[in-house]
């Protein structure tokens, strides 16, 4: 049986890497990407290849359309087409909106939201042609409720949620499902700036009394990619009951 192919953006570490490992273990061809940490990406590639699968590593800012286009040209050449797209690339900005420069705003939006448009617009034509495809967007609880001092990040994830719901309706007739996972506090490098006291306070707010694990996000993403063809347009919270 022909292997399926998955692209996970922003996958040199953290949630993206955990998702890549999950799909590698399940026998997919795995395409991984990051903007500039080539050393980490190649290390992840070597790890994935221990599962006897084909892995393609691509370094470049997929928030730039021409860069994303080159990535998809390479995917088509190597694997024919893409079966699963996981839009995980994302950055955060902590600080007051009034302290944020226009370039800071633009960088968050380009990385977190424009990259989703770029990859979806390039992946969809072949998915429509094949009458099959799964698109899973990695969102955040802040896209649902907003977070003080993370206005741009919240706006980008809120945009991703609306994008998910709208695109799901557009693609449902072609048997393509589009869903998002709204992550709560996940134990990754993105949260390592927290002091011990802040971390304790945060875990006390979460009914499950702990941060989520990247592997738990990966399990849900794989389930969405592998299972139900009637589940689409959903923003699925994975936050331990927090929000």
CATH top level label: Alpha Beta
Classification by helices and strands:
alpha/beta
Mind summarizing the main beta sheet?
A: 7 strands, parallel
Distance between the first and last residues' Cα: 42 Å
Read across the widest sheet, the strand sequence of neighbours is 3-2-1-4-5-6-7
**What is the rounded Rg?**
17 Å
- Counting structural domains, the number is 1
Task: Give me the CATH superfamily.
Answer: NAD(P)-binding Rossmann-like Domain
Q: Level of helix content?
A: 40-55%
Number of strands: 7
Any idea of the CATH topology? Rossmann fold
Q: Per CATH, which architecture?
A: 3-Layer(aba) Sandwich
Unreliably modeled segments: none
Q: Could you say which overall geometry the principal axes of the C-alpha atoms support?
A: globular
Mean pLDDT: 96
**What's the number of helices?**
8
Percent strand equals 15-25%
List the secondary-structure elements in sequence, H or E: EHEHEHEHEHHEHHE
GO molecular function, one term: oxidoreductase activity
Keywords: Lipid metabolism, Oxidoreductase, Steroid metabolism
Protein name: SDR family oxidoreductase
Family: Belongs to the short-chain dehydrogenases/reductases (SDR) family.
């Amino acid at each position: 049986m022909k292997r399926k192919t998955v692209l996970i953006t922003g996958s040199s570490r953290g949630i993206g890497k955990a998702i890549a490992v999950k799909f590698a273990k399940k026998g997919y061809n795995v395409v991984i990407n990051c903007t500039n940490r080539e050393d980490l990406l190649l290390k992840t590639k070597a790890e994935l290849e221990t599962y006897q699968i084909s892995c393609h590593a691509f370094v470049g800012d997929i928030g730039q359309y021409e860069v994303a286009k080159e990535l998809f040209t390479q995917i088509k050449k190597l694997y024919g087409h893409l079966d699963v797209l996981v839009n995980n690339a994302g950055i955060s900005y902590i600080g007051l909106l009034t302290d944020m420069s226009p370039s800071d705003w633009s960088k968050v939006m380009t990385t977190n939201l424009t990259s989703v448009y770029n990859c979806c617009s390039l992946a969809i034509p072949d998915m429509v042609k094949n009458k099959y495809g799964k698109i899973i967007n990695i969102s955040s609880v802040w896209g649902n409720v907003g977070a003080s001092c993370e206005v741009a990040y919240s706006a980008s994830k809120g945009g991703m949620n609306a994008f998910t719901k709208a695109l799901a309706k557009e693609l449902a007739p072609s048997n393509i499902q589009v869903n998002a996972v709204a992550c709560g506090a996940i134990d990754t490098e993105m949260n390592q700036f927290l002091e011990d006291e802040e971390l304790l306070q945060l875990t006390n707010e979460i009914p499950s009394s702990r941060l989520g694990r990247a592997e738990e996000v990966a399990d849900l993403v794989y389930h969405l990619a592998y299972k139900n063809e009637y589940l689409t347009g959903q923003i699925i919270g994975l936050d331990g009951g927090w929000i």
